[in-house]
Fold each of these.
Amino acid sequence: MERLPFIAGNWKMNKTVGEALDLIRELKTVISGVKEVEVAVAPPFTALDAVRKELEGSSIRLAAQNLYWEEKGAFTGEISPPMLKEVGCHYVIIGHSERRQFFGESDETVNRRINAALAQGLKVIFCIGEILKEREERKTFSLIERQMEGGLKGLSGKEMRDMVIAYEPVWAIGTGKTATPEQAEEVHRFIRGKLERLYSKAVSEEIRIQYGGSVTPDSIKGLMNQPNIDGALVGGASLRAESFSKIVRFKEM
Ligand code: 13P
């Protein structure tokens, strides 16, 4: 089955509003005319509104990096799904390993966030992945299984159609150590098999699975050649238009 490749840039805690505008203006120019690849950027909350305005008329989609599950109320410092909808977000990243590592996210809180996002019509980029110790102890598959069962708990096959899964091995994030295409493909194939067991063959074949972890213009082609890798969630290399556009234009390499 043909799945539309999906390349997303996770800007993490980078870019002031001014810097975000500079980047998005440049990006619009350098990736104009790219077809048959879906592209999204996830700026920090403070730059979402400005970037949305700059993206008017462009096919680049806007994504947020997190949300809280309540709609409003006394939750100091949090951002709700309707707030993200209002500023034009199409996607939201949920369960990123940095959220799990530094901000105490668990499979349960990830699940609550996913439910809240989908209920408001946001599409979700759901991140999963093992740390180095788990890989070395050969626990990658059991960990992925646990994260999927916990994060996707209670979601219907219909809801899954608004989901993208990002496999991000934590040992490859920001380290310059990309998983080899074969290492990534092995886990992507496992994730698709698990989706089939949890839902159906049709759902498992439809869902896009991105790879994330030190993706660069040099590594993208090999990754995208794998049958179960449908795109990338790019951190560091998405902060410059030159490198991100090369990744988006992987078909031309
Ligand atoms: P890097 O591409 O900087 O390794 O980050 C990957 C990532 O965490 C994307 O969400």
Amino acid sequence: MGKHLGTLIWAVLLSMLAANPLWAAEEDEEPAPFVTPELVVPEPASAVMGWVDSREPQSLNGSWKLLVDPMQVGTPGGFFGGWATTRTPVDAFQLLEYSYPDAADIRVPGDFNTQRQELFFYRDTVWYQRNFNVEAEADTRYHLWFGGANFDATVFLNGAPVARHKGGYVPFSVDVTAHLQPEGNDLVIRINNRLGDDTVPTGRTDWWPYGGLTRDVMLVATPEQYIVNAKVVLNNDRNAITAEVATEGFAAGDEVTVVIPQLDISQTARISDNGDAQLSIPAQPELWHPDAPKLYRVELAAGDDRVSDQIGFRTIETSGTTIMLNGEPIKFKGISTHEEPIGRDGVAYSEADMRVLFNEAKNLGVNFVRAAHYPYSRHAARVADEMGILLWEEVPIYWNIAWENADTLAIARDQISRLIERDWNRASVVIWSVANETPYSESRMKFLGRLIDDVRELDDSRLVSAALLGDTRRELKHVAAHLAAHGQGSDIASDEEKAIFQGVLAAAGEAAPEPGSSFTLVIDDPLGELVDIVSYNEYFGWYYARALAPQMGVSEQTIRKLMLQFIPQVTMSTAFGKPMFISEFGAGAKAGKRGEGVWTEDYQAAVYRAQIAMLSHSPQVQGMTPWILKDFRAMLRSLPGIQDYRNRKGLIDQNGRRKQAFYVLRDFYNGPWADTH
Ligand code: GCB
């Protein structure tokens, strides 16, 4: 082909592409060859559509088709044509370079990383496709509802890009009535699970960034005028149930009715200009409690629309350093989890998965679970409601986030508001946590301050927290001095090491601690001012020894052994006069490995014993969620033969095998802390 002909073909091709308004470039700009322009895609509905399970939705779970697209050629608008619709060649002459009918199968819900071996470490674009039929009825609206798609999903229905959601983990929906056809609807989702500096979470996390349609997908039918969502909670005085109902399509003055048959409640309110209705209904329900998780059937009606749910009523508040459930002091006997099932790799997506996981948590004697580090599927809080487990729910603002980036803040705000709007009727959820181990800075305070304001505005019937990091450098300096004082008189250290300890104490001068003296660690991160419960992650007995040994010039073995003796002399506290909560402590162990040293069950159990001794004499500490119930997948953790890409701090391994530390914690919750609920 001559040079001129080649240029001409390009010019024609590019002008055809530019003529399509979906991917039109700026008017005077010539699209660059081989570059795929950004699509213009609407946002999903801004509010979460709640109460969906009572609408008998059409499930779109099941077997879908999957294409893997690391080169981004599936996006429509470029030279390669795009994969937004299902096409098959009309005859032997048509060039198509993709095919959904011939593509691999993938199960929805579920992550793609663990369904296909070659995608285990994959962090990029894939395409999901399926067909569905719908017997569309008159005067009905149809909404595509996604429980969560990790982490950036664009939805195409019959070729039209109908919604894009960034962030993953939380539900979104879009009204697709205008795009539906009775048969053979072609639903295609482009999903990318790559994370970077500006995303939430960022690119580096200590959990697997599972990608794909990890949650339920469904088609929800509503009347033209319908209830979008409603928050139904007990007021703080425990004498009235309040309902805030959001509707769509009704006229001001139309009515909403709330019925709670078991309480003989049936009350009506009028919808205001903005579509909302508010009710406050005098009531004294039996209160939801982990020991007796009472749920009531609540029904809402407006026009032709009807929805219902099972809801528990309780209050949660703090009084000084005490946490009060239904006006009574309570300690949170907890454990942390990730959203992974026992006995299978990948994301836990079903109610059954959550039941098994939470049941093993209950076997420890817990009344509380920290659902770290991101929103789980909606099944989690439902199961917790039924099983009587208090729940901490969290958004993945983890380590270093782009605090100054407006788009990052927008994703974070979207994520927390969608989580709250989904779970605000779950009595089990008592804490919204906005962050985990975020280093101090002014911009971090502003970012998290904004989120905390959002949370309080959306839902003031729960407590706000964040897992804090503390001032590790300062703390380690104090700990080093105490270890030196302690080590001098012990037979753990060698003579050479004792000389080093003497040097450390001499340098500390008057501040040098006496052997055996206690040490109070005070958390004063200014974020403590903004939260209701001051939560703290600490790794005495695990990371701290590794950090101190080279700094002090003493063997890690000596430091670890001294540390186990020293931990019980530490008292945890905060500068805020609020309840303190230990949101993490732990140590790694490979199930079945016994003996001395790190990675053994024995060492992990020794760390738990020392930690429990410390925490049970720290009066401000009102609960704990040690890290973690089960070994979990983590790309950070490669050590062959021990980790093999799993974080080994679980009390059980991935198949449910219990380690010694499981029993240490169980004995504590069933013994000294048995009567603290
Ligand atoms: C932490 C993090 C958690 C990690 C854990 C660990 O502090 O919050 O995500 O998995 O430590 O095992 O290091």
